[in-house]
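Progress against Task 2.4 (sequence-to-structure conversion) is shown through the following example record, which the project officer requested during the mid-term review.
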Amino acid sequence: MEVDQFAGVFQLLDKRLKMDVLKVFFQDIPIPERYGIFRIIYADMEYNFINIDQNFLIQCLHDRFKSVEHKKAIQQLKQTIHSDIITIYRGEGRESSPSDEAYSWTLSETVADYFANRFKPKGKVYEAKVRVEDVIDYITHRDEEEILVTPSCVRDVKEKK
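C-alpha cells generated for the chain above:
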C-alpha cells in the first residue's frame, strides 16, 4: 500500500479510530512518511498525548526527525519567532488535561481562550514559556498555531486573569 493510499484510508475513518488504525499499519508506512500521518491525525482529533500508548508515542516522536513536514514546521516556527524563548498559551476547559500534563499549547492567546470556553464558559487560560529547541512540533494547518511540547519543558506557567 502506498503512502497516499494510507492518507486516504485515514480520511475515511472516524476520528476516534484513526490513532488505533495508525498503530496497526505504522510499521508498513515508509519511515519518512510516518510522522506526517501521525501529526495530521493528532491535530485533527481532539486527542491528547496522555491517552496515546506511550511506547507508540515515543516511536512516532522519534520518527519526526526523518519527516519533511516536521523540518518545514520547525523552520517556519523559527522564522515566525525571533527568540530562543517563546510565550505559549493553553486553554483549559473542564475536561481538558491539566496544564502540567499538557502537550498542546498555542502561540495565540485568542485560540487558547476559545479552547478554554468553547463548551462552557469559565475555562482557564494559561501563559508559559518554552525554549524553541524544546518544541516537538509546530502545527498550523488548522490556524491554531499549535505548539507541541513535553510538559516537563514548559516553564513559568501562570493563569491569565
